[in-house]
Amino acid sequence: IPIGIAFAPGDELLVTEFRNNRVQRFSSEGKHLATFSVPEMPGGIAVDHHGNIYVAQMMLHTITCYDPSGKLTHSFGGKGTGPGQFDQPGGLAIGKDGSLYVADQVNRRVQEFTTAGEFVRQWGKYGSGPGEFGGKEKPANRTGGPNFVAIDRRGNVYTTEASEGRIQVYSHEGKYLRSFGDNSEKPGGFGG
């Protein structure tokens, strides 16, 4: 099952496979270039400006880091609710400044790290209001969100949130800016 997708320098496409426990590398035209193994149940993936690869290991509650050839360099995290700990991490994104953002799904927050795995900050909590995640789901359900994360050219952080059917937008420091979307099926809605 393909889950995460990211581009590496040179327009190489990397895809995590949840069931096969691997990352496959393709050309932008879809030609298979390489494969490397990762621990079980990989999800989100991001690539930094040097080609280093970061993979969210959802059920191991860690982030694993690889050099451009796919060799493991380090990992960080572990199950928990403290700073730098995760409960089923999902999507990953890397900002222009090199900050790594992690959608910490069941903990209902976004965490920011250096690419070395040093904790910088976190924001979010369980609920349905601005800056909150997953309030329409039971707290232990990862589908509530935040699920995936993306960074725009200004450094703002965007999160998906399945239970509320919305996108929330934050400054790179985690200040809530706005949200859009709902659980409707109309244009601009994400429900159904």
Query: How are helices and strands ordered from N to C?
Result: EEEEEEEEEEEEEEEEEE
Strand residue content: over 45%
Rg over C-alpha atoms, rounded to the nearest angstrom: 16 Å
Q: What's the total count of β strands?
A: 18
Helix coverage percent of residues? under 10%
Which structural class fits the helix and strand makeup?
Answer: mainly beta
Main sheet specs? 4 strands, antiparallel
Poorly predicted regions are none
Helix count, DSSP H or I runs of 4 or more residues: 0
| Overall outline | globular
* Average residue pLDDT: 95
The order of strands across the largest sheet is: 1-2-3-4
End-to-end C-alpha gap: 23 Å
